[in-house]
Design brief:
677 residues, alpha/beta, 22 helices, Hydant_A_N, ATPase_NBD
Length: 677
Amino acid sequence: MHASHPLDLGPLYLGIDTGGTYTDAVLWSEAHGPQGKVLAKAKSLTTRHDLAVGISGAVDAVLDKAGVSPAAIKLVSMSTTLATNALVESQGGRVALVMVGFSEADLARDGLKTALGTDPLVLCEGGHDVHGNARALDLAALAATLPELQKSVSGFAVCAYFATRNPAHEIAARDLIREVTGMPVTTSHELSAKLGGPRRALTTLLNARLISMIDRLVAATEGFLDKRKVYAPLMVVRGDGALVSAQFARQRPIETILSGPAASLVGARHMTGLDNAVVSDIGGTTTDVAVLDHGRPRLDPEGATVGGFRTMVEAVAMRTFGLGGDSEVSLEEGGLKPKMSLGPRRLVPLALAGMVHGEAVTVELERQLRAPNPGRMDGRFAVRTGVPEQLAAGLTAPEAKLYDMITAVPQPIDRLLTSNAQNATLNRLVSRGLVHVCGFTPSDAAHVLGRQANWDEAAARLGAELFARKRDGRGQPIAPTPEALSERVLVTLTRLSAEVILETAFAEDGLDGAATVAHALVQRAVDAHPGIARFTVALDRPVIGLGASAPLHYAGLPQLVGNECVVPEDTDVANALGAVVGQVRVTAEARVSQPKEGLFRVAVGELLRDFTDEDAAMALAEAEARAIVAARARDAGTDAAEIEVSVDLKVSTVESQRMFIEAHVLATASGRPRIAV
């Protein structure tokens, strides 16, 4: 994949995806038709202690493969799951929340009290009503606490009552904080124009916590690019799939939650050219399913939910299922013909454990095979995850005893555990992230059948032989050969993939009981005797399969979902590619209300103005929204934005007279990011 004449390739674009486990990089050129061309791609382990190490590992590899000079890169764009992971794991800086016009009782709404935890809270008098009329503002409590707060927090979050209708009191609090402390301040009106004070406060609080984390990611990337003499603009993918400049993302890091999945959707559309599709991304642990409509991901109308908190951030409507190539394979207990199930727990595949640990795994599997009867724990091992010892603090006596017996080399569970109670203890160690369980997975089945060959096939085959010996309710082996068992596992994974895809489609259509209906329909489709009542179902759009294992597991999908399944050539780096081919898209909103008859109030940005003429008020609202969105587009990284304006006008008719109620003006600017010249 070497390029002997890089100058003939046109501008080169570098895409990076920093995930929880791997950092992906892709080098892309647009000089090869409408889809462009992936010149090189690479993966490197994400290095949490120093993100630049993982980034450099992936980027250096793609530059070497493509044989191009770093100076030829004209744009760098990245997606990340770090913000999402931080919220899920309750990480982030200590932040002071300043609420103006609210009471302590408001903390009970929308999970705000839980999210705040032990971080400091400052309540001040003030705020506005629904029309933007001010109450008396008193910031004395804030002024008194600022000298002490600046010693113990990394930033401030400010939310005022009805600040979306008049942000004056948030601005006053922000200016006071900056004047006294010089520290970062996030105000709620900058993040959302939606009503709902407590949830807006929650969104603002989480944003303030994430600023230092995204700062580190951007700084690590910029530092690496500078060392490699890559002097190109750096962009970041938002949770709705749009690109924004790194500086823009630093101020609004909350908007990067679900950045990785959003980038995958953008990459899926780019690689296939499909505007309408169901996108299913299968990994080792989970399958993520979302819907593309008219070339853009469907967004969650209620705002993204991450770590149990519902925010006001627009992000892709993504459904995640515990189903992947490394899912646990198990059988239901006690059935005459026991059903096979996969997940939701992830196991370390035996093939991977065998590759890393060799005879420590295969010798024990052979021992278990020599036993005259199958055992319940056959083919199962426990191994330490390698986390720092301090994370094992606080274990109970039984947990500590078992943990001491488990080492960095896999231990066979049939010799490790002596009672069922110890099995529960082991599961607690797994849930704390201290121990991995190794066992038979779909990845092993693929190795047995020769459809995957990157790990140890011998360990996988031994595991399949052990699993095939398990007995059904009649005392017969559940499969005659390792190959037959492995085929059944892969068929089950494809069937369950169809179920989660259909479940997502039914849920998007607003149908109740989506999971039950999806299961029944797919079961009828694969059943040799479908019954008296016959059902058929078909998606109205194709499926795009993403993930390194998608070509294997999605080959049998079309007959189950009633439409084709498209698996792009570069499906394994869809997120990194999506990061680099997306567009900048930002919005600005204006509202026109009528506080009293004959008075039209325009609220847009930090402007509040009254008119006695409706047309004049509407004209100003649209002009200001256009001007604000044009400035935001420049800040977000594009010099060639197209602006569209939509107006939602609410009126009523009383005794044949038209009555103005409210108008909502939405200006949207979109365009390709600027590149280095």
